[in-house]
User: Which sequence fits this backbone?
C-alpha cells in the first residue's frame, strides 16, 4: 500500500511539474536569455527594466514608439530607464549627447531630435561641434551645452554606460534587461510587440519573487 502511495505521489508530482513547465508562455534560452551573472539594480524595491539603444540605430528608431507607449502603462513597481549602448568611439559620442541632455534637463526634448537627425535625416553627427549645432537648433544655449558635455559627471555616466554594455553581454540594439537578470532581444522575440510581451512576463515573474 505504501509503495502504491509513493508511486502515485511521484506520478502526481511529475505531472504537476510538467504542467507548470508547459504553462510557461516564453522559454529561457529561446525567447529570452538569463545572464550568467546578475547585475545590481539601482532600486531593489522595484523591478528594473533598462533599454539599451543607439541614436544611430534604425531598429532602435522604429522600436522607440513601442517602448514609449509601453512605458506610459507601467505601474509604480517598474523602474524603466534608458542606457545608451557604447560599442565604438562614435557610439560613445552619442551617449555623451544623451547624458548631456539629461544633465541639462532636456532629455525628453532632445530624444526625438537626436533620433531624427541621425536616422531619418542621415546627418553626419560625428563631432562635438556637430552635436553643439543640433542642440542649439533645438533651443539649447551653446555655452550651457559645452559646459555640460565636457563635465566630469557626464563623462562618468558615459563610462558607466560602457560598462553596462559589456556586463549585460548584448551583441546589438535595441535590447532590454529585466532586473539585471534577463536579456530580451528582437531577434529572439520576433517582433517588437512580442518583445514587450516577454518583458511584461519577466517583470511579473520578478515581482512575484520579491
Assistant:
Amino acid at each position: 500500500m505504501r509503495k502504491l502511495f509513493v508511486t502515485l505521489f511521484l506520478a502526481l508530482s511529475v505531472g504537476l511539474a510538467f504542467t507548470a513547465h508547459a504553462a510557461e508562455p516564453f522559454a529561457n534560452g529561446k525567447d529570452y536569455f538569463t545572464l550568467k551573472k546578475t547585475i545590481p539594480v539601482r532600486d531593489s524595491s522595484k523591478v528594473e527594466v533598462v533599454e539599451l539603444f543607439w541614436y544611430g540605430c534604425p531598429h532602435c528608431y522604429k522600436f522607440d514608439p513601442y517602448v514609449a507607449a509601453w512605458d506610459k502603462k507601467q505601474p509604480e513597481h517598474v523602474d524603466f530607464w534608458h542606457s545608451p549602448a557604447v560599442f565604438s568611439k562614435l557610439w560613445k559620442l552619442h551617449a555623451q549627447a544623451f547624458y548631456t541632455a539629461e544633465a541639462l534637463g532636456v532629455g525628453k526634448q532632445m530624444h526625438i531630435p537626436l533620433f531624427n537627425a541621425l536616422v531619418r535625416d542621415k546627418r553626419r553627427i560625428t563631432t562635438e561641434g556637430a552635436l553643439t549645432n543640433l542642440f542649439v537648433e533645438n533651443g539649447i544655449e551653446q555655452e550651457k551645452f559645452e559646459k555640460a558635455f565636457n563635465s566630469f559627471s557626464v563623462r562618468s555616466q558615459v563610462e558607466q554606460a560602457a560598462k553596462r554594455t559589456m556586463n549585460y553581454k548584448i551583441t546589438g540594439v535595441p535590447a532590454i534587461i529585466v532586473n539585471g537578470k534577463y536579456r530580451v532581444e528582437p531577434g529572439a522575440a520576433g517582433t517588437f510587440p512580442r518583445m514587450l510581451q516577454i518583458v511584461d512576463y519577466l517583470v511579473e515573474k520578478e515581482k512575484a519573487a520579491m
Observations:
- The longest strand covers residues 47-53.
